[in-house]
């Protein structure tokens, strides 16, 4: 049975209409997707600039704690000749920063939002050393200084990862002729060396079994 030309024209017109609807919808979707991407990039850039500043301050605060050995001007900072903290441990509540955290990749968001818990956990671990004997409270200050030196390096690395994600310029570590990360590593290694030397002295002074018998 021959197909009438009018039927063919109608089919062509209907197909063209459907293609036009599909093409118009796709173009609209692409425009919306582009706007969404641009909005996310702006939010991520704003977040990075703001949060990096908080992370840098936090890392510097960790450095101050890493230097605190309980003395002031070479003398015990507490009463009665006891060593006492001269620097408060830092606080960090990322949820107080008014940004859209969902604009970050999952791993970065997880690590930054988890800093508050890491600080709480570190403070609990250090507090257990308060039972150390006065007046030096050596173990307490070793644990506190070492823990915050390591934490400061972790925070500094996080700040750098955030800069790289948002294509921000790297922070010049030269501040008053000093390098923050270098100082954090220096304090970490210094405390570790002091602990090892102390353990070596304890082992050397411990009576041998043959001497006891």
Ordered list of secondary-structure elements with their pairings:
Blueprint: H1 5-67, E1 71-72, E2 75-76, H2 106-113, H3 115-127, H4 138-165, E3 174-175, E4 178-179, H5 180-205, H6 209-212
Antiparallel strand pairs: 1-2, 3-4
Helix pairs in contact: 1-4, 1-5, 3-4, 4-5
- How many structural domains can be distinguished in the coordinates? 1
What is the H-and-E element order? HEEHHHEEHH
Structural category: mainly alpha
Strand order of the largest sheet: 1-2
Shape: elongated
Largest sheet geometry: 2 strands, antiparallel
Please report the distance between the alpha carbons of the first and last residues: 118 Å
> Beta fraction of the residues?
under 5%
> Tally of extended strands?
4
Number of discrete helical segments: 6
* Relative helix content: 55-70%
Radius of gyration: 30 Å
Unreliable parts: none
Report the mean per-residue pLDDT as an integer.
82
Written description of the protein model:
The chain is mainly α. It has one domain. It has helices at residues 5-67, 106-113, 115-127, 138-165, 180-205, 209-212; strands spanning 71-72, 75-76, 174-175, 178-179. The strands form 2 sheets. It has a two-stranded antiparallel ribbon with strand order 1-2. Helix 1 (5-67) packs antiparallel against helix 4 (138-165), helix 3 (115-127) runs antiparallel to helix 4 and helix 4 packs antiparallel against helix 5 (180-205). The protein starts with a helix and ends with a helix. The mean pLDDT is 82.
């Amino acid at each position: 049975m021959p197909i009438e030309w009018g039927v063919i024209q109608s089919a062509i017109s209907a197909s063209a209409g459907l293609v036009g609807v599909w093409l118009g919808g796709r173009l609209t979707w692409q425009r919306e997707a582009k706007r969404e991407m641009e909005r996310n990039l702006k939010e991520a850039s704003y977040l990075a600039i703001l949060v990096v500043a908080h992370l840098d301050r936090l890392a510097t605060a960790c450095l101050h704690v890493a230097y605190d050995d309980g003395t002031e001007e070479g003398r015990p900072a507490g009463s009665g000749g006891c060593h006492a903290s001269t620097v408060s441990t830092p606080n960090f509540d990322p949820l107080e920063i008014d940004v859209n955290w969902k604009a970050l990749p999952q791993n970065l968001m997880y690590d930054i939002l988890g800093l508050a818990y890491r600080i709480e956990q570190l403070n609990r671990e250090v507090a257990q050393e308060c039972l150390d004997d006065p007046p030096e409270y050596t173990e307490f200050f070793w644990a506190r200084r070492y823990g915050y030196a390591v934490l400061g390096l972790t925070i500094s690395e996080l700040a750098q990862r955030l800069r790289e994600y948002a294509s921000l310029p790297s922070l010049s570590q030269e501040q008053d002729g000093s390098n923050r990360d270098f100082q954090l590593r220096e304090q970490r290694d210094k405390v570790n060396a002091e602990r090892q030397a102390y353990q070596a002295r304890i082992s050397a002074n411990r009576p041998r079994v043959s001497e006891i018998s």
